[in-house]
Amino acid sequence: MNQRLFDAMEASPVIAAVKDFNGLEKCCAVEDVKVVFILFGDICNIGGIVKRIQEAGKIAMVHVDLIAGLDSREVSVDFIKEQTGADGIISTKQGLIRRGMELGMYTVLRIFVLDSLSLRNVDGLDHQYVGAKPDCMEILPGVMPKIIRRICRKSRIPVIAGGLITDKEDVIGALSAGAIAVSSTNYDVWEM
Fold this sequence. Notes:
Elements: H1 3-11, E1 14-18, H2 21-29, E2 35-38, H3 46-55, E3 59-63, H4 75-84, E4 88-91, H5 94-102, E5 106-112, H6 116-123, H7 125-128, E6 136-140, H8 145-154, E7 159-162, H9 168-176, E8 181-184, H10 187-190
Parallel strand pairs: 1-2, 1-8, 2-3, 3-4, 4-5, 5-6, 6-7, 7-8
């Protein structure tokens, strides 16, 4: 994993996931938040959103799948890199993650673990990458310490627990299970 990203998550393992402009302003005001996952925006305003986060001294990670006006082709990652200057991307699509890595961006592969089949796919993830793997994988929902622990034991890719993280108990459970960080849209969690 890229050292700057790792250091930021180690210094503050709670990642602010923002889904609107209100959340954007709130996360920028929380000093302890070092990394921000951008879960909203469109091709017209994403540059300004990224700029606001970076001006607050935080790492801006754009969930490229959720930006209106972009599609699932690699050129979307090029757009985010060239037109916004974002530090990194989040995606559920391995091709976009690969492109982000080629462009020197931080990368987070978002994975939903909904059943035993999706868990088996995560277990084999390390073998799917030849010469390139994401800096981290975000496992959702993040309130499954037993599953997080299993994934952390089997994978060399650092794990972020995301989704449904709502209180200190959830944060401690995920971190104790081996996650390096948690992501949450909950303002109270950001200020812990």
